[in-house]
Design a protein that fits this description.
Blueprint: H1 17-42, H2 46-73, H3 75-84
Length: 89
Amino acid sequence: MFSEVPIDIETVNKKDLDKEIMRVAIMAEFDAINMYEQMANLTDDKDLKIILLDIAKEEKVHAAMFQTVLMEVDHEYLKVMADYALVKK
């Protein structure tokens, strides 16, 4: 888990700053997902497990939201996601 932005903002090109922010946000969401799912696996309390897994699911939604916006501004990322998506038409 991290509580600080793991990039040096001063070294990021201004035009790429929003993309970097979204990538860090995605990392934070996945970190939170892992934490909540691990805690859910540790507890024997059924109510607590339900709450933790529900929160983990919310974090997955947040990650998907950031990825959606990132794909709108990073066309290379969009192409990679489209090329490697498991669900293809």
